[in-house]
Each structure stands twice: as structure tokens, then as C-alpha cells.
């Protein structure tokens, strides 16, 4: 974790390998060009260099603390830090102070007498208080047996790695096409200075009615490989008893199913940045139009492009489920959700979230979700200026 700060803030950094040496900036530039040309695959190993290169470039370009609040605070804590090691887990948070905005750094008091759980919870509270969005909640992942920490359901475990949230979107999306499920609504979260309860305000979308493992839906029974194409999607939509047209968007249901099964993350998505598309599609030329309501994919996808998308599925769908709500919404989220769980769009939420009633008037936080046709502020349009539809939920 400390390497991020050491490289990012330095005036110059050199990488040594045996008798060889290269300037960090030259290595970073070379890897970006090699991957962008398709000569070298964009891999986790490449990402270890280029991601720190991004923080270095951003830190020196964004000298103003307020500018760093978005470019460094959230991207660091949402993406890269999860893959980095720390001998002391509290350093997952403490090591970021030297790069962060003044406002974020001021609320992170280095105190190694506090437990890991306290440090993680305090950091989450702090970000919920100082930011007008709920983006930190997208960092919450289902822990299962992987975590030994006892945390409130709404606090991320930064030791689990696998960063970027369930939808893992930050490197891929154009800034102008990021999800904005709550539209222009800002966070109204009530976050006490201590205790395990927070209160969020939002609109109830629906309840989960049916769930399916996405891996099992897309896996070839003979080869075990994951594959996707138009014919397979049409067949799957029929097997799932989907209507011919998806109500929320006016598209044919197989098109909506494609975006949902992949969380609209593949290079066929109009949300994806040209840089990411180039790195991951190499020499395959794909024209991706902006999609309006009812437009669908609106393009013919070549067999080569479908094959490339299929090769990316393993990372996207691992541990994920497709769900269908009572009113027919298609959703994508992490395993361990249940039938009957609730889908909400909370004020300030970039994406919808899944929560579960605990039976005592409180809710447990499951995590973020993709709901096709409700990712760009559509739910807030239901209000029509009437705030009475906004509910208050207490999460623990």
C-alpha cells in the first residue's frame, strides 16, 4: 500500500530489475502503448504499473485539494487499494492520507490503538458525511466466510481485494456516461459519530422474485466455456419466459438481457471509454452507437466481436446472479442475495442497492446492483416532485 504513495508523490521514480533500470514514467507509457496497440494483453500485471502511473499523473496534475477529492480519494479507495498488500490492515486507510484531499485526510486520524474494524468503520462514516454521494457503499462486497472482521453490513472490508464494487466499472466507463441512478438527488444519509446504524433515504423499486447463476446460464454444457451471442441470448430470453419487449426501455428482451448479464460493461456498451475499448478489442473494429430508449444494440456484431466479449465473461460474471423482480425488472448483483430481498434507489446513489429486512425494523446491506433501464435517474422521475414516496431506512 505504501508504494502507491511513494511513487505517486515523488518527483522521479526508477524501476530496477537486476542490472537494468527504467524510469517509472517511461515504463508506464510503454505499457500503455503496448496494450493500446494490442501487442500486449491488458492484464492484472500491467494494471499494477499503469494504475499507480495514473495516481502519479493525477497527483501532480491536480495540485488543488478539491480536485483531488474526486480524482484521487474515491478512485484510490474504490479501485486500486484493494489489490495492494498491507502488513497492518489499518494501513489500507492510513497510507492514503498523503495522496488524498485535505478534507478526507483531516478525518483520518492515525491511531494504531484502534482496531481494524474501528478504522474501517470510521473511514466509511467519514466519507458518507463529507461526500454528497453514496459511492463508498459500492465498495461493500459479500464477505461469506472470507472475512474474519465483524463489521456493520454497510462497511467495506478493504482486505478482500477484488476492488471496484460488484459492477467494477471505474476504469472502463466514460466520465460522462457513468451510472447515475438517483439522477441529481444528493445524499441525505444520516451518519452518527458512533454506533453501527446509519439512515438512508430512497425509493423502493421492487422485490427480487427469481434468481439464476449467470455462469450456469452462459456455460456450454459440453466444453464448460462461457459464451454469448445473439442466438444464445434469444434462446435464453425465451427459456426465462421474458416478454418480447422489455417494458423499461422498449428494447427487445434479448438486448436488455445482454446488458444485464454483463452489467453493461463489455466493449459493446456505449458507456465504455474508447481507451478501454481499444485496449481490450485490439484490432477488432466495433462501432458502438449511443443508445436511446428502444434503440437496442442497433448494430450487427461480428462473430469475432462476440468471441471477444465471450472471452471477457469469466471476470464479469464470476459469483454473480441474474434476478427478475415481481414487476419484471432485470438485475445483476452478487451471490448470496435471496428471493424477497428489496431493491432501492437511494438519494445520492450512483447505482441501485439490494437490502434485506432483518425483522426488527432494520435492514442489512447486501450491495450494489445493476437494474436495466433504471441506471440513469429514471426512478427519481417517478416522484414528480412528491417527496412523500421517499422512504427512510435504518441499516445496521
Provide structural commentary.
This protein has 396 residues and is an alpha+beta fold. It folds into two domains: 2-160, no CATH class; 166-396, no CATH class. The chain has twelve helices and ten strands. The protein has helices at residues 2-9, 24-36, 44-61, 65-78, 91-94, 102-106, 116-130, 214-218, 230-239, 253-261, 274-281, 303-317; strands at residues 14-17, 20-23, 198-213, 320-325, 330-334, 342-346, 353-357, 363-368, 370-371, 391-395. Strands 3, 4, 5, 6, 7, 8, 9 and 10 form an eight-stranded antiparallel sheet that branches. α1 (2-9) packs across α3, α2 (24-36) packs across α3 (44-61) and α9 packs across α10. The chain is globular, with a radius of gyration of 21 Å.
Distance between the first and last residues' Cα = 29 Å
Mass-distribution shape: globular
List the secondary-structure elements in sequence, H or E. Answer: HEEHHHHHHEHHHHHEEEEEEE
Task: Work out the number of β strands.
Answer: 10
What is the average per-residue confidence, as pLDDT, rounded to a whole number? 86
Biggest beta-sheet profile: 8 strands, antiparallel
Summarize the structure.
This protein is of the alpha+beta class and 396 residues long. The protein has helices at 2-9, 24-36, 44-61, 65-78, 91-94, 102-106, 116-130, 214-218, 230-239, 253-261, 274-281, 303-317, and strands at residues 14-17, 20-23, 198-213, 320-325, 330-334, 342-346, 353-357, 363-368, 370-371, 391-395.
Amino acid at each position: 500500500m505504501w508504494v502507491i504513495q511513494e511513487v505517486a508523490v515523488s518527483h522521479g521514480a526508477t524501476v530496477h530489475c537486476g542490472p537494468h533500470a527504467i524510469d517509472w514514467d517511461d515504463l508506464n507509457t510503454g505499457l500503455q502503448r503496448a496494450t493500446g496497440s494490442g501487442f500486449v494483453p491488458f492484464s492484472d500485471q500491467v494494471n499494477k504499473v499503469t494504475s499507480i502511473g495514473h495516481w502519479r499523473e493525477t497527483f501532480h496534475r491536480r495540485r488543488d485539494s478539491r480536485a483531488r477529492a474526486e480524482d484521487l480519494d474515491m478512485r484510490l479507495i474504490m479501485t486500486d487499494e484493494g489489490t495492494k498488500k498491507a502488513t497492518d490492515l489499518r494501513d489500507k486507510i492510513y497510507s492514503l492520507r498523503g495522496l488524498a484531499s485535505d478534507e478526507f485526510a483531516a478525518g483520518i486520524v492515525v491511531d494504531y490503538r484502534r482496531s481494524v474494524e474501528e478504522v474501517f468503520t470510521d473511514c466509511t462514516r467519514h466519507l458518507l458525511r463529507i461526500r454528497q454521494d453514496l459511492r463508498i457503499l459500492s465498495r461493500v462486497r459479500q464477505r461469506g466466510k472470507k472475512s474474519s472482521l465483524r463489521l456493520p453490513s454497510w462497511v467495506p472490508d478493504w482486505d478482500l481485494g477484488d476492488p471496484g464494487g460488484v459492477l467494477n466499472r471505474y476504469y472502463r466507463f466514460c466520465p460522462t456516461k457513468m451510472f447515475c441512478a438517483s439522477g441529481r438527488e444528493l445524499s441525505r444519509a444520516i451518519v452518527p459519530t458512533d454506533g453501527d446504524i446509519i439512515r438512508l433515504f430512497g425509493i423502493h423499486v421492487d422485490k427480487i422474485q427469481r434468481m439464476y447463476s449467470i455462469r450456469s446460464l452462459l456455460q456450454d454444457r459440453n466444453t464448460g466455456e462461457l459464451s454469448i451471442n445473439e442466438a444464445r441470448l434469444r434462446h435464453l430470453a425465451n427459456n426465462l419466459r421474458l416478454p418480447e419487449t422489455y417494458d423499461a426501455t422498449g428494447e427487445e428482451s434479448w438486448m436488455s438481457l445482454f446488458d444485464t448479464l454483463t452489467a453493461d460493461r463489455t466493449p459493446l456498451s456505449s458507456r465504455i471509454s474508447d481507451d478501454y475499448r481499444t485496449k481490450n478489442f485490439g484490432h477488432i473494429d466495433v462501432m458502438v452507437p449511443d443508445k436511446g430508449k428502444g434503440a437496442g444494440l442497433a448494430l450487427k456484431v461480428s462473430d469475432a466481436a462476440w468471441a471477444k466479449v465471450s472471452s471477457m465473461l469469466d471476470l464479469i460474471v464470476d459469483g454473480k446472479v441474474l434476478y427478475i423482480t415481481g414487476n419484471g425488472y432485470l438485475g445483476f448483483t452478487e451471490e448470496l442475495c435471496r428471493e424477497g430481498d428489496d431493491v432501492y434507489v437511494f438519494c445520492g446513489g450512483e447505482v441501485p442497492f439490494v437490502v434485506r429486512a432483518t425483522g426488527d425494523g432494520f435492514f442489512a446491506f447486501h450491495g450494489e446492483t445493476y437494474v436495466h433501464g433504471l441506471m440513469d435517474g429514471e426512478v427519481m422521475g417517478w416522484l414528480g416532485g412528491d417527496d412523500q414516496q421517499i422512504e427512510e431506512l435504518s441499516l445496521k
